[in-house]
């Protein structure tokens, strides 16, 4: 498996996080930057492609690539409000 080269995370604020139902702050990288490093991404048909996120806890949410591309999406790498030493 090839390791991705990610830019430095930047602060992102979600005004109404759908999980926490409140304003949340994260450290995140642009999702497009991550996806462009996946072989075949440039030629993928957005209407026929699902993006699946495999989380460390086993959760695997997915969404259509067309939806991912319709907005400026980010991949959170850290909860900026987590206690020190936790992500």
Topology:
Blueprint: E1 10-14, E2 24-30, H1 31-35, E3 50-52, E4 62-64, H2 65-69, E5 74-79
Antiparallel strand pairs: 1-2, 2-5, 3-4
Oligomer state of the chains in this structure: single chain
Please count the beta strands (DSSP E, at least 2 residues each).
Answer: 5
Shape descriptor reads globular
Radius of gyration: 14 Å
Euclidean distance between termini CA atoms: 24 Å
Q: Helices and strands: which structural class? A: alpha+beta
State the helical fraction: 10-25%
Strand percentage lies at 25-35%
Main pleated-sheet profile = 3 strands, antiparallel
**SSE arrangement, N to C:** EEHEEHE
Q: Low-confidence parts lasting 5 or more residues at pLDDT below 50?
A: none
Alpha plus pi helix count: 2
Spatial strand order of the main sheet: 1-2-5
**What's the pLDDT, averaged over the residues?**
90
Overall description:
The protein is of the alpha+beta class and 87 residues long. The protein is 11% helix and 28% strand. The chain is built from two helices and five strands. The chain has a three-stranded antiparallel beta sheet. Strands 3-4 form a two-stranded antiparallel sheet. The longest helix has 5 residues. The radius of gyration is 14 Å and the shape is globular. The chain starts with 9 loop residues before the first strand and ends in an 8-residue tail after the last strand. The model has no long low-confidence stretch (mean pLDDT 90).
């Amino acid at each position: 498996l090839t390791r991705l080269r990610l830019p430095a995370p930047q602060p992102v604020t979600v005004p109404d996080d759908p999980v926490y139902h409140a304003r949340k702050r994260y450290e995140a990288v642009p999702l497009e930057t991550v996806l462009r490093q996946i072989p075949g991404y440039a030629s993928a048909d957005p209407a026929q492609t699902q993006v699946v996120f495999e989380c460390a806890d086993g959760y695997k949410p997915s969404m259509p690539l067309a939806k991912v591309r319709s907005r400026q999406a980010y991949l959170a790498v850290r909860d900026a409000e987590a206690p020190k030493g936790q992500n």
